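Long-time lurker, first post. I've been practising inverse folding by hand and with some scripts of my own, and I keep getting stuck on stretches where the structure tokens seem ambiguous. Below is the full token string for one chain I'm working on. Before anyone asks, I'm not after the true native sequence, just a reasonable design that respects the backbone. If someone could post their per-position residues I'd love to compare against what I wrote down in my notebook.
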């Protein structure tokens, strides 16, 4: 490839990646660059961009150890979001030693059911579709996003979860983002 990578221009566009026109410009200007590009987002998570003539694939190695994959077309529009799995797995010997998983109490499970049902109602309103299909991947993401947003803005969010640490130990967090 004869074309030299203009890192200054790429960094300028990447800094404004949430902007549709910036993504479109990235495809137009860097769509023939053969290598994946790495950077860090505002949450200090590692990001890998693969820019092609027909779009962009963004892989975010999230702090929760999951890889989120966002696809964008040549015009910069998001065309899909999936998860590839965990980028950090537990060591095999720790997995083998794991004992019985912790479970939420009935009260905690009922709280999560309340959250997911509210998220589902919200999705039906947003999509203007009373027959919208239940999709736990979407509902879980929406609930997580809402909990993170509310927590960031100072609210305490009762959203119980079982947290598994890298060493395989588990604990229950009743409130989003609060460690015991």
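-- Answer (accepted) --
I ran through it position by position. Result:
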């Amino acid at each position: 490839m004869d074309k030299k990578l203009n890192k200054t221009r790429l960094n300028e566009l990447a800094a404004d990646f949430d902007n549709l026109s910036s993504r479109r410009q990235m495809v137009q200007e860097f769509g023939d660059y053969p290598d994946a590009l790495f950077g860090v987002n505002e949450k200090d998570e590692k990001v890998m961009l693969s820019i092609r003539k027909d779009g962009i694939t963004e892989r975010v190695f999230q702090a929760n150890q999951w890889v989120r994959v966002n696809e964008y077309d040549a015009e910069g529009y998001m065309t899909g979001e999936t998860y590839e799995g965990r980028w950090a797995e537990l060591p095999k010997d720790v997995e083998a030693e794991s004992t019985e998983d912790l479970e939420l109490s009935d009260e905690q499970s009922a709280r999560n059911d309340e959250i997911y049902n509210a998220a589902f109602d919200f999705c039906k309103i947003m999509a203007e579709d009373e027959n919208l299909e239940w999709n736990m991947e979407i509902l879980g993401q929406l609930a997580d996003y809402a909990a993170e947003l509310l927590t960031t803005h100072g609210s305490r969010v009762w959203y119980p979860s079982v947290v598994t640490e890298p060493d395989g130990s588990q604990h229950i967090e009743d409130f989003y983002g609060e460690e015991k």
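A couple of notes from the structure itself: The first helix runs from residue 7 to 15. Residues 7-86 form one domain. Happy to go over any region you disagree with.
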